[in-house]
Amino acid sequence: MTVAEELPETPETADEEPVKQRKNGLYPGVSDELAENMKSGWADTELRDLEPIAQAAETAARRAALSARFPGERLVIPAGNLKTRSNDTEYPFRASVEYAYLTGNQTEDGVLVMEPTADGHRETIYLLPRSNRENGEFWLDGQGELWVGRRHSLTEAEKRYGIPASDVRELAGALREATGPVRVVRGYDAGIEAALTDKVTAERDEELRVFLSEMRLVKDEFEIGELQKAVDSTVRGFEDVVKVLDKAEATSERYIEGTFFLRARVEGNDVGYGSICAAGPHACTLHWVRNDGPVRSGDLLLLDAGVETHTYYTADVTRTLPVNGRYSELQKKIYDAVYDAQEAGIAAVKPGAKYRDFHDASQRVLAERLVEWGLVEGPVERVLELGLQRRWTLHGTGHMLGMDVHDCAVARTETYVDGTLEPGMVLTVEPGLYFQADDLTVPEEYRGIGVRIEDDILVTEDGNRNLSSALPRRSDEVEAWMAGLKG
Question: Name one GO cellular component term (predicted).
Fold first, then answer.
């Protein structure tokens, strides 16, 4: 990577923050002749035949629902800014879920503003326009289009997102002068928040954030379709991993991580979260993402991974696979217990059921097995009342799924964990048993075995649909599936 040079000071840039030249850049400046040369000789690249994004109708409906909830108030929803990774490099940008959900746009620095009117709100999406060719920004600025790629013009953005577009560089000043009640989604854009600092309160802003989280509890048809695409790609990613387990044995868990990541980047936007590629005793660490350990024949591989689509919807699937293709007798016993617990949990997912029902059903099965195996003293009701099974089950049995892997996380407890399932909700069911390598309360042969099975479940009008059913779950089916892929 080379360095962006300092913009020559012109009337257009005299009042702007100059581009900072890297200390050890090779060019000391820009000659007047070169600056003039770079202004001309470029083709017109404006895109004039753009169609609206696929979810334009859905994002419009979401904004209408938001408008109805907060009449008479100015609503400000930022996308966020680039974050520095190190020195002059940035992390890949991912727009805030709230902003992407309402607009479909994913570019940094964007802000959706909904201005109150007599009959609702007037919407504007504030974006950076195409980089300036008159003042040299397009080739001298580190975020100019010759450095990082072309941005859509404001006219193009209006066509794509169905929202009038304006220059975001003018927004902070306008917000400072704004009057009337305002709410902003916090935590994404410090500059926008600073412009509103004397106009907003934390309590009111949190109400906006909570409402936007609860809006996503029930998915529309577009969202369900995107989640199915994410799951289908994830299934193919799991197949990819099984085919290269011999290479992972020769290297490490990193080979598994890289293999799945390739599928995610080819068919989607990214992985939806850090892939958990946990072999052997690493499977007992719930969020093992270092992925630097050995992969050994005879051990289990707990693979918890999901592809994220280009619209940010992610799958979240887990399978626990025998590295050599066959479960040992003890591994199968533990795996089958988790499978039975998951079956009970999935059966409890249906409209009108309490959200907690699938968790309780799964935990009961696991507690029964732990008592049966003599690992904890019964009766089962006592174990569940005291939560004694949690030494080996550790986590809750699932969560909402969507644009975040743990979607709707700031929804009110009464509408989420203490709520009732409705058609259109999508959640994971993922019981597990984990026997830590240093757990002296279990027989030695159990130690270091961790098993989790996770699927993505859509609540339907008459029950549920397993979006990830294309991946085998039953132990004998897993073995046959792996043999077929390896063969």
Answer: cytosol
